[in-house]
Amino acid sequence: MAGSVRVTMTVNGAQQSAEVEPRLLLVHFLRETLGLTGTHVGCDTSNCGACTVHLNGEAIKSCTLLAAQADGAEITTIEGMGQEGALHPLQEAFWEHHGLQCGYCTPGMIMASADLLERNPKPNEEEVREALAGNLCRCTGYHNIVKAVLAASEAS
Amino acid sequence: MIPAEFDYVAPQSLDEALQALAQGGEDAKILAGGHSLIPLMKLRMSQPSLLVDLRQLQDLKSVNADNGQIRLGAMVTHHRVATGNFGLASAAAATIADQQVRNMGTIGGTLAHGDPASDMPAVLLALEGSVVIRGSSGEREVAANDLFEDFLTTAVGEGEILTEVRFPRLEGYGYGYEKFNRRQEDWAMVAVSALVKKAADGTCEDVRIGLTHMGSVPLRATAAEQALRGQPLTAESIASAASHAAEGTEPPADLNASQDYKRHLARVLTRRALTTASE
Lengths: 156, 279
Ligand SMILES: Cc1cc2nc3c(=O)[nH]c(=O)nc-3n(C[C@H](O)[C@H](O)[C@H](O)COP(=O)(O)OP(=O)(O)OC[C@H]3O[C@@H](n4cnc5c(N)ncnc54)[C@H](O)[C@@H]3O)c2cc1C
Ligand code: FES
Ligand code: FES
Hints:
B: Uridine Diphospho-n-acetylenolpyruvylglucosamine Reductase, domain 2; binds FE2/S2 (inorganic) cluster
């Protein structure tokens, strides 16, 4: 019979610790154990990117990572990006440029974009599209998402 | 989708990891990036009883590129290979899936797994590289040519850990990587790795061509290589050599591509990859 493991990680700056089943996925740890429902599950098969969060500063798909693999790590989710009244430049830009319609893909889009801007603060359009290849959007046609990311890169 | 239950350990040393694997028996499995294994476990196509996570083994994350020989720890991510300036290997790693997958997936994981649609096996074959495999009875070096045995079957045995990947820098060679898929994050229908060394008189001194997804294991396009070696590197001789690229292959047909279409892709992509490698 499988046991449990203790995981301790920093999520959006706060230390969190819990006893979990080894098979618990990070996305479920975030959504269900911690109640951080900003991170979405779209495909559950590592394709759509809705579940993208940062693991030690890098974008990863949290539906394909065990919570146990993130033990000792720093995790940032969309909730850690900005607050009402003090949005992250990417959040401002998505708002300003209408980079979302239903909003389901948006947390993942923003986390993947933040990873890009960290590595490459002034990307061109092609680099933005390439960096978002792992994030699917069923509403916008991507055009305004790309515009928003480019605008955020100019704003910072 | 939730995987079946399993136990989990994340050892601090390679010896501890080997020990855990041995104690776990035949249903124990290594966990590297998890980007092949966890999807399989979620589909319950794989149900290991124990996962031995290599994430704490810092030695397996080292990159050493001295003396024309590149040595990558098994846990080096696709992202680090893609951005590491390793020529053909970097070009191929940059095409794997998407940024998020490249941030987790590892070179050791993809080579130990041996998926015929994956990018790095044929690259290692063309580079004539090797891997180091550690077991309870010691360490051995296995050439790329002997690593890939069959569909999802490699020379990495039960209870063994692939620790390092080695390949030469190949100064003086040009390279080209051509991968055909329908969407950017898809696996290769077919991919071709080409390495070309030009002689002083402009002829082809050496050429190596690796084929991805043209069989249950990665292949070398030996007939095309032979046709080009010693020839001038003109558009005509490249096209003529590339027409041999699919000779002797039995590619697996799938929903996206029939055998004939894959053979066609191999010829076209070989011509393109050789052209880039000869520039
Ligand atoms: C959406 C998606 C798209 C993808 N597209 C591509 C693509 O286009 N091209 C491509 O090449 N790959 C692709 N991949 C696969 C990805 O590259 C995987 O990361 C890789 O194949 C496996 O590496 P890993 O580190 O994730 O290994 P894991 O999933 O952790 O392990 C895979 C297997 O190898 C074993 N193993 C792992 N490491 C070792 C080791 N050091 N020693 C012994 N055994 C070991 C494990 O036990 C397991 O059986 C894709 C994956 C996803 C999720
Ligand atoms: S829910 Fe993780 S990639 Fe779609
Ligand atoms: S805004 Fe609806 S999925 Fe992207």
